[in-house]
Amino acid sequence: VSEPRFHAPAADADVRTVSLDADDAHHLIRVLRLGPGAPVRVFNGRGGEWRARVADVHRASVRLELGDPVPTAPEPPVAVTVALAVLKGDQMDTAIRDATALGAYAIVPIVSDRVTVPSRAWNSGRAVDRWRRIAVQSARQSGRAFVPDVTPVRAFDDVVAGAAAGAILVATEPSVTGSIEASGLDHRPATALALVGPEGGWSPREIGALRDLGAHAVRLGPRTLRAELAPTVLLTALWMRWGWQ
Amino acid sequence: VSEPRFHAPAADADVRTVSLDADDAHHLIRVLRLGPGAPVRVFNGRGGEWRARVADVHRASVRLELGDPVPTAPEPPVAVTVALAVLKGDQMDTAIRDATALGAYAIVPIVSDRVTVPSRAWNSGRAVDRWRRIAVQSARQSGRAFVPDVTPVRAFDDVVAGAAAGAILVATEPSVTGSIEASGLDHRPATALALVGPEGGWSPREIGALRDLGAHAVRLGPRTLRAELAPTVLLTALWMRWGWQ
Fold it and tell me: Which residues of A touch B244 (CB under 8 A)?
């Protein structure tokens, strides 16, 4: 598809026109230099995508007229929520961008024992807003019609306590193998919670809690990976086992 | 291993002491603030790694005394050469860093029809020197004792013409599937050439050449990936099929 794609959450089957937000409107008018009649695509972030045309451009606002729905890129067979320990700014941005492109169903930033990023960097709503924009842009660029929800930052304990038994997958460093039950990826669950730790890995306390919950360790090879690379490698490993779609 | 690792190509079984290059010496003296007697590790980039101690520090030069060899992180079961279309600066750096961390055996930057980076950016020796330094640093950080060779930039035609029939793997976009024979990853070759294209993908001429050579398409899911992410996803997919070590 060579037509530019835009995210419009209001788009739906019974909707005729949608407006773009300010950033996208600017991109359409100033960067792509499109005007009335230009063909584009619109996705709503919930799995719907349509052909559309620019209806009118007025100063910094753009209205699009929706056309026929189009087939969308298939979503993965398992809804995998990636619970991602907070990394420092650009690494977290990369991790969220790439987890979105690799098909994450939702992204939950977590604070675990070894997170070193100071709380002022993530406990305002600004950080979450930024991560949500990154997820939208990554969905736009990767051709997904679904945008993973990015939740506010949560505590490791709260996230794992709420997870379904047996559907917790933990990306582990080479050194942790053996502490948690080896991979149970042969069974394809309906949903899974995939935990990715910070640079320093999981604390002994956390590993104990995960073992008690019956979490499955997924060893991402014998080499040490940069933390922001782990979601990409973990999701690829899951899809290779469970199918990409 | 919490001891800092250093790359010293001269290290070998019959060598007693090695010197560090200027950058690593600076890192040891100024950043880590280590002095005589401090324990470190040394790897030679060809699969050898040793315990070592700082023997002496003199201004900006450091000599290390080698001790016992240590077990190294296992290498992958297939020597995969990643032939990577030249991307713009920081994307290429990321791709080389990550291909190294994911276990590439060698990295061959290539110019294919749709490479858009101007030749002045890569046809001096400087670019290759930079990429080699990135591969060394990535091996250091990821715990590899082997550093992939990064060759000078070569032409797509030359690289594929020299490849063993049947051992060419092509990372393809969703749209290319069907043009090249579907994946033959069930067979585990001794070596493989893994081709990763530029942002614009492969030209029809290149796809034709690859088909004629019996190349195998490896589809990296139904979503469009950023070019610098493709080596990571491709190598992970290969190791999931062939084993990580």
Answer: 219, 221-222
Residues from chain B contacting residue A245 (CB–CB below 8 Å)? 221-222
Query: Do A79 and A108 contact (CB within 8 A), yes or no?
Result: no
Of B142, B219, B237, the CB nearest to A236: B237
Whether A229 and B101 lie within 8 Å, measured CB to CB: yes
Q: What is the pTM of this model?
A: 0.94
Q: What does each of the 245 residues of chain B score in pLDDT, given as a tens digit?
A: 579 999 999 999 999 999 999 999 999 999 999 999 999 999 999 999 999 999 999 988 999 999 999 999 999 999 999 999 999 989 999 999 999 999 999 999 999 999 999 998 888 889 999 999 999 999 999 999 999 999 999 999 999 988 876 688 888 776 665 555 656 677 788 899 999 999 889 999 999 998 888 888 888 888 999 999 999 999 999 999 899 98
Beta carbons of B221 and A141 less than 8 Å apart: no
ipTM higher than threshold 0.85: yes
Q: CB B142 to CB A223 under 8 A?
A: yes
